Amino acid sequence: MIARRVRKLGELVLAEQALKQPDPVLIQQGLLNAVRQKGLASLPWSKSARQWQARVKLLAHMRPGDWPDVSDAALLANLETWLAPFLPGLQRWSDLQGLNLQQALQSLLDYHQQQQLEALAPKALTIPTGQSVALDYTADNGPVLAAKLQALFGWTETPRLAGGQVPVVIHLLSPAQRPLAVTADLASFWRNAYPEVRKDMRGRYPKHPWPEDPFTAQAQQGTKKRPVR
Predict the structure, then answer these.
(1) What is the pLDDT of residues 109-128, one digit of tens each?
(2) DSSP string spanning 110-144?
(3) Strands 144-148 and 4-9
(4) pTM
């Protein structure tokens, strides 16, 4: 950040002097202007921060007025509200790259909203094996939960978010972690599509369970359990 005091007559520069210790307010304004020029993507976004943004955007879409607009355009238009309070002490652009961006974004929510965010749009869901699987809110047609098909046996109801308004899109994966099916209606998948998937896959992955009744089968992450001798 470089600051100068310039005295001009029209476009004619009469005097120019570098400021060794510019006003912190000027530095802050300069950094905000730089963000506007470079765009919001120039900030140090993490995957977690983008997921947070997508979670809040989902709730803002479902419940307009109850949640702030956190689209890129809205964030860029309101830098003074959420970013400026985290700029004191920063002197140069490289300092800004070390900013905890998610913490700054979270300042847009009050305490109640932060609690509601975890309840209505959780970061992860627990699947029948007991594992916690992260949701991808940034995926097309998200939120998406991707898990091995065998790990979801017995899960008959599609999980829903935002107070039951938004079904989770399930990506059922093969033992090789390749997508076998995509559904927002697990019960329908087990009844209608699973028999064909079972027919195609049981010969390809014989070490993994492909029971006839996925509704009552035990969910498991690994291969078939050996019988106890």
Answers:
(1) 999 999 999 999 999 999 99
(2) -HHHHHHHHHHS-SEEE-TTS-EEE-BSSSTT--E
(3) unpaired
(4) 0.85
**Mean pLDDT, residues 13-38 taken together:** 85
pLDDT tens, 157-206?
999 999 999 999 999 999 999 999 999 999 999 999 999 999 999 999 99
Per-domain boundaries in the chain: 4-120, 124-201
Signed CA dihedral, 114, 118, 120, 123: sign only = positive
pLDDT at 226: 54
**DSSP per-residue codes, the chain:** ---EEEEEETTEEEEEEE-SS--HHHHHHHHHHHHHHH-GGGS---HHHHHHHHHHHHHHHHSBTTB---SHHHHHHTHHHHTGGG-TT--SHHHHTT--HHHHHHTTS-HHHHHHHHHHS-SEEE-TTS-EEE-BSSSTT--EEEEEGGGGTT--S--EETTTTEEPEEEEE-TTS-EEEEES-HHHIIIIIHHHHHHHHTTTSTTS---S-TTTSPP-SSSPPPPP-
Q: Specify whether the CB–CB gap between 148 and 177 falls below 8 A.
A: yes
